[in-house]
């Protein structure tokens, strides 16, 4: 069974940092691009970052550029999202999602057309 599990969420003060992890089981993550999405109450789901299957390419939403960094360790079937300088508006439920590379040279996408989704982890930013 293909599964993604997020971890690393929690409560952090504004200006603080968190690192989210997304670990895959039941499939070989190194063949998949991975996206990070967030959903806050009253807001639409937002693609915040993604990383290509090789890790060579990343994309970021304008709202997190310069603060969030996506990386991956395919040997551990895990993708990370380092979140720095967190703001109250970053508070949301964060999800990772995986998409098997649909063609050669595919990088990733910030839109939600992904095949497999995790259950999410809550990030709260508050003093």
Terminal CA distance? 40 Å
Major sheet details: 7 strands, mixed
Structural class: mainly beta
* Proportion of residues in helical segments: under 10%
What value does the Rg take, in angstroms? 14 Å
- Helices and strands, in order, run as EEEEEEEEEEE
- Low-pLDDT sequence parts: none
- The beta-strand count equals 11
- The total count of helices amounts to 0
How much strand content do the residues show? over 45%
Mean pLDDT: 97
Based on Cα principal axes, name the global outline: globular
Explain what the structure shows.
The chain is mostly beta strands and 127 residues long. The chain is 0% helix and 48% strand. It has no helices and 11 strands. Strand 7 and strand 8 form a beta hairpin.
